[in-house]
Specification:
eight-stranded parallel β-sheet; two-stranded antiparallel ribbon; 11 helices; binds NADP nicotinamide-adenine-dinucleotide phosphate; alpha/beta
Length: 305
């Protein structure tokens, strides 16, 4: 498994991360196998949020890690905060209390990375700055980032926050390519040219912010998996042909497509199936050509001007 430097911060992590949003659906022995398999294939970066499973995901993960006797320093733990029932909350008090909650549930003294989960329009950036500084100085959080934010929102934070923003977690998959489409179709009178994110892809590259694509196998907003779906016949034909040629599975090709982008992204995969974890890890050694990348992009139903 290749490694990347998250946000050029010196935090070196596996280029594929395991997202832990769905582990509440598993029994304890299955969680053990999932995490041990991830570690075996070289995945050392685990993505959490205080809200996953209402906090249960972090607890289950910590218990499994304890049973695996993996040293805390061997893995990288990221969690997120800011989502409350029917509200977003980036107030100083809420960020601080959410981190305490995550640290307790994860049974750890520090988070490697804390992300602000979804933009809170009532955000006071000075309060975020205060909370980040307190968390950093106390050693409770080592690095900071955001999720689902556009360039303006990140700029606003950067004006006040002392710490570097190292990551931005965004929805991106072969079937969710808005941030790529608008850049390919600049100034055209078509829907694909509409810039819905303020050129977040280019912004993150300019500022060395690692994009972490979430739901890399889903189409729509958690509508389902595009792999082997009748809804995407051409895409699946193309994925399968490339997979066969490279002797990997279709899951590996879907992730290799994201890894091929020079923005050096870190996909967050959410499978709970250890066999799929092994398959997906092979994406790290796939060499995808420029023409293969574009063939997949077109097969997903896109067009080039
Ligand atoms: N920042 C945010 O706002 C945000 C939002 C959503 C998610 N996330 C993060 O992103 C992570 C991934 O999200 P996700 O779970 O929705 O993404 P995903 O990896 O696209 O989807 C995983 C789901 O797809 C299923 N699946 C079916 N066939 C598959 C195949 N061939 N290959 C891979 N998966 C297949 C998996 O089932 P099996 O388990 O049976 O394999 C699992 O239920 C989450 O765990 C979370 O950490 C962040």
């Amino acid at each position: 498994m290749k490694a990347i430097d998250i946000g050029k911060s010196g935090l070196i992590a596996s280029e594929i991360s395991l997202g832990c949003m769905r582990i509440v659906e598993l029994e304890q022995p299955e969680i053990d196998t999932l995490i041990n398999t991830a570690l075996e294939v070289g995945i050392d970066f685990f993505d959490h949020a205080d809200v996953y499973g209402g906090g249960k995901s972090e607890e289950l993960f910590a218990a499994a890690l304890k049973r695996s006797s993996t040293a805390r320093e061997k893995i990288i733990l990221q969690s997120k905060c800011g989502i409350r029932p029917r509200a977003f909350d980036f107030s100083r008090e809420y960020i601080l209390s959410a981190v305490e909650g995550s640290l307790n549930r994860l049974q750890t003294e520090y988070l490697d990375v804390l992300l602000l989960h979804r933009p809170d329009t009532l955000m006071e950036p000075e309060e975020v700055a205060d909370a980040f500084s307190q968390l950093h100085q106390s050693g409770k959080v080592r690095h900071f980032g955001v999720s689902n934010m556009n360039p303006g929102q990140i700029e606003l934070l950067r004006k006040f926050v002392d710490q570097k923003i190292v990551a931005n977690q965004l929805q991106l998959s072969l079937t969710n390519t808005g941030m790529i489409d608008s850049g390919i179709n600049v100034n055209m009178q078509i829907d694909r040219a509409i810039d819905r994110d303020g050129s977040i892809l280019e912004y993150c590259r300019l500022h060395d912010i690692t994009i972490q694509p979430w739901s890399p196998f889903q189409y729509g907003f958690f509508e389902g998996v595009f792999l082997d779906s009748d809804k995407f016949p051409e895409l699946n034909r193309t994925i399968n042909a490339i997979a066969e040629e490279k002797r990997v599975t279709n899951s590996a090709i879907a992730i290799a497509w994201l890894l091929r982008h020079p923005a050096k992204m870190q996909p967050i995969v959410g499978t709970t199936n250890p066999t799929r974890v092994r398959d997906i890890a092979q994406a790290s050694s796939v060499e995808m050509t420029r023409l293969e990348w574009y063939a997949l992009y077109l097969a997903a139903g896109n067009a080039l001007p």
